Amino acid sequence: MLRKSLVVLLACTVGGIAPVLSAAAVTVAAPTTSSDGAPAVGSTPEATINTLDGVLLKSMQGGRRLGYSGRYRIVAPVVQKVFDYRRIAALTLGDYWQKLSPEQQNEFVGVLADLTAATYAARFDSYNGEHFAIVGSQALQPGAEGVFSTFTEHNGKVHRFDYILQKDGDFWRIVNVVADGVSDLSLRRAEYTETMQKKGFAALIAHLKAQIAGYAKGS
């Protein structure tokens, strides 16, 4: 089952990561720890996912007490660290990415990071015993790995979150998330390239900022 999901995960990731399965077996994750016993953030793909899951639980547990802005302040620094937004931006925009100026590229990367934090802060807003669990991982090729995890609601319903991560120096960062079989990267690529083609870069940025404002207002 994990191997089948890995194939889907690879197929949903656009460019840059060759679809080569390693001979290594799927392994159950064992988080790396630092000298004080805490997870060594980003030192392994599993540690990166544990870091993300931990801050989302913290956001949920803060709930209304923190409010949207409080949850955003907790989530934003972590998602900035665990996602490779420049890589995601290039994969999302495809050929349009190279046509942007450095200033436009930096603006787009920043808005993507803000949108991710806003989405998490708005959606992970209450806690009633929900929990995350890493169920396995597999090397895809040198410097790329898939991590398989679940999110269980208080009523027992289980959602699947599969991640592709790439190594960036000594740190593992997320480049794609497949939630219940739906690739975030593929959805964004379809939406954003269509907007770029029809309306241009300024319209795309305005659209994403409107989404961010909508999350803030709706919460």
UniProtKB/TrEMBL annotation:
Residues 1-23 form the signal peptide. The keyword Acetylation does not apply. Keywords: Signal. This is Hopanoid biosynthesis protein HpnM.
